[in-house]
C-alpha cells in the first residue's frame, strides 16, 4: 500500500510542478539555514577526547595574590609545573607551552619553514591525548630527565620536509640547532584544540614536538599567552622560570574518582608547603581539576551567540513551514472533488490521510536533500569569504541523516492540518457537483 501511495504522491507532485517546487524550495531554505547553524554548533561543541574525556584534567592553581584576578587562571607558573611533576599519583601527566621558530632539513636547497605551532612538552603528552605514530615513537623517559635534541613530527610537517617518507633517524634544524627525528605521528587534528585554548580553540594544530627538558637550555620563547599578577623585573630566562608569571599548561590523567580525590589532596598539601615559602598568599588559594567538558565550558568554546543562532534558524524554519502549510492547504482543497469520488467508492478517511502524509513526506525528503546542498554551499561561503576555520565549517557526516529526518518530520507537521481538512470534507458535496 505504501508504494501505491508513493506512486500517487509522485503523480500529484508532477501535476502541480510550480506549486510543489515552491513548497520544496520553502522547506529547503529553512533546512539549509538550520543545518548550517546546527553544523557549526555541533563542530564547535564536539568533545574530541572521546572516551577519555572524563579521565583527563586541566590543572588550575589559584596562586595569584589577594589583589589579583578573582578566578582560576588557565595556566600555571613554570616552577609549579615542575613541582607537580613530582607526584606519582596521576597515570600520566604533562606540562607544556607553545613556541615557534624556523625549521629546515639538511638539504641546502630547502628553504627554512616558519612553524608557529611548536609544542614544548614531555613524552606523556602523546599517550595522554591519544596520539598514534606511523613511524618511530616518542623520545624515552631518560630524555625528560637528561635533555637530548630529539623531536616528533606531525604527518603534515613530515610531508613538507621529507615528502611523507619515514624520516626517523634523520636530522632537522629548529632555530639553527640540529634535532634527531625519533617519531612521526599519524594525522591528528582535534577540533577544538582543547589542550591549549590560549590562542583560539580552532585552527592549525601543533606540527612539531620538542622535549620540555630542553626549555631551560634553549630558552624557548612562549608564543602563547603570559599572565602576570604583580610586577617582576625579569632580565633573563632563569628569572622567568622562577617567576610568578603564568605561561604553561598542565594536564593529568586520573582514571578513577579515588585517584582524583587523592591527587586533589596532594596538590592542596603542596599549596600549604608553598604558603610557608611566601607564595599562594590569597585566602582563596586552591586547586581546580577540570575535565574536558568542564574545561570547554570554562573557556566558553561555544559562544552563547551560536546557541541563539541555532534558535533563530529553527524559528525561520517554522516560518517556512507556515508558508508551506498555506500552500498545502490550497493544493489539497483544490483536489477535494477527486477525493470525494474516492471516498464515495470506498476509500476511508484514514487511507486518504495516509496518502497525503506520504505526499508531504516525499516533498520533505526532496526539501531536505536540497537543503543539504544549501548548507554545503553556505558553509563553503563562510570558509572562503569570512575566513572561518575549515574544522568548523566542514559538513559533518551526521547532517546527511539529520537534514532529511528534520525535513520529513517538519513537512509532516505542516501537512497534518491540510490533510485532515481534505479527508474530513463531506464527499456528497462534490458528487452532486459532478
Automatic annotation (TrEMBL):
It is found in: Cell membrane. GO terms for molecular function: transmembrane transporter activity. GO terms for cellular component: plasma membrane. The keyword Hydrolase does not apply. It holds the Pfam family FtsX. It is a multi-pass membrane protein. Residues 20-269 form the MacB-like periplasmic core domain. This is ABC transporter permease. The lineage of its organism: Bacteria, Pseudomonadati, Pseudomonadota, Gammaproteobacteria, Alteromonadales.
